[in-house]
From TrEMBL:
This is DUF6268 domain-containing protein. InterPro entries: DUF6268 (IPR046235). Pfam families: DUF6268. The keyword Signal applies. Residues 155-273 form the DUF6268 domain. Residues 1-34 form the signal peptide. Keywords: Signal.
């Protein structure tokens, strides 16, 4: 059975959103064996009937998520920005609102024991409001109460090789920025991420893998290694990790109630269109003729969240999730994406703050699972 919930944990973010949420930040967990959520019966005519293929999931991991709706909010916190080029001033204020709405869905296109394809779509919106409006500062006035949006689609390929080995390949494209339908330009706003993981299923309770990811988990597009580690130690405790993007400890209170605790690194990358062109000055304080006036900025946001989470079944196919924790902001910086030097224009710092979120998600109904054979 395909467990779509782990797609988001392998993704770079999140978009916000896959180590792109996103990672968010998308990758895939396949629920191979579970006394709680048994695997589906082989499809009729499947040449792999009776064979048991390796997958990255382990016994005890939560139910598959087909549709996810999440809302996250933070209380007031201070913000401070410093201009890193001549001609830009420093500024400090207070953010009175920072909220995120996320909607994700996963559609199985192919579900054979030896090959699985999953199509994922996501929409995310982040909003800011500041104490003084207008702020009179270039960056804040352009994102004030203006949704920073992410619209994306991804394709995940899960290939169990044999009874021990498996690999996952995922590619994702997202349009990220402050666009609206009348000014959307794919060339300006497109962000692409991908990953490849190869792993070993050592037992029904232990699976691990290594690979590389290309994404925005750390603010800018970069390539970095990844280590997947899924292990269930007993009937209650387990670990689900994709290092360095996230490490989570799991506690199975019951088949219908799970608790999680750990950390995640989320990277967001937006293109922000400026209402008024921003002219870069030279060292003499005058306009620098060698630099083109900026009409857009690339906003790179990186944060680490220390979090606790509770997932609980409401009714058969409907679950909810409650999450809370503490956000450490590593960067909220704006870069020149017009001139070749790609210089940092504004260096910002968002004060660390607590956060909370609520989530509803749809899973396969139990009546579709209870008669399925166990592996």
């Amino acid at each position: 059975m395909i467990s779509f919930s782990t797609l988001s944990s392998l993704c770079c973010s999140p978009t916000r959103r896959g180590l792109a949420t996103g990672l968010a930040l998308l990758a895939l967990r396949l629920t191979a064996t579970a006394q709680i959520y048994p695997a589906p019966a082989p499809l009729p005519g499947d040449t792999a009937r009776g064979k048991e293929f390796a997958v990255p999931s382990v016994v005890g991991m939560g139910p598959s998520k087909g549709l996810v709706i999440r809302y996250e909010r933070m209380p007031r916190f201070n913000v401070a920005s410093a201009g890193t080029v001549v001609g830009l001033q420093d500024y400090s204020s207070e953010a009175t609102k920072n909220a995120r709405l996320t909607i994700k869905g996963y559609i199985p296109m192919l579900n054979h024991p030896h090959l699985k394809l999953v199509l994922g779509i996501n929409y995310e919106r982040e909003e800011f409001q500041f104490r003084d409006r207008p702020t009179g500062y270039e960056l804040y006035d352009n994102i004030e109460n203006k949704g920073l949006k992410t619209l994306g689609a991804q394709l995940a390929v899960i290939r169990p090789v044999n009874t021990v080995n498996w690999y996952i390949f995922r590619v994702k494209g997202e349009l990220s920025g402050d666009y609206n339908s009348s000014e959307l330009s794919v060339r300006d706003y497109l962000r692409v991420s991908s990953e490849l993981l190869y792993g070993w299923k050592r037992s029904p309770t232990f699976s691990w893998g290594v690979g590389v990811q290309l994404g925005y988990t750390f603010g800018r597009q970069s390539i970095y290694p990844a280590l997947l580690y899924n292990r269930t130690f007993n009937d209650r405790w387990g670990v689900e990790a994709l290092f360095p993007a996230r490490i989570t400890a799991r506690y199975n209170a019951s088949p219908r109630s799970l608790f999680f605790a750990g950390y995640s690194v989320d990277g967001l990358n937006y293109i922000v269109k400026l209402r008024q062109p921003l002219q870069r000055n030279g060292t003499n304080g005058q306009s620098d003729p060698s630099k083109t006036a900026l009409r857009t900025l690339e906003l790179r946001e990186t944060e680490v969240k220390f979090r606790g989470r509770w997932e609980r079944e409401i009714y058969d196919f409907l679950w909810f999730g409650l999450e809370g924790g503490y956000r450490y902001n590593y960067a909220f910086d704006a870069f020149d994406r017009t001139n070749a030097d790609r210089e940092k224009i504004i260096d910002s710092k968002l004060a660390n703050a607590p956060y909370a979120s609520v989530e509803l998600f749809i899973v396969p109904p139990r009546k579709f699972l209870k008669n399925a054979p166990r592996r």
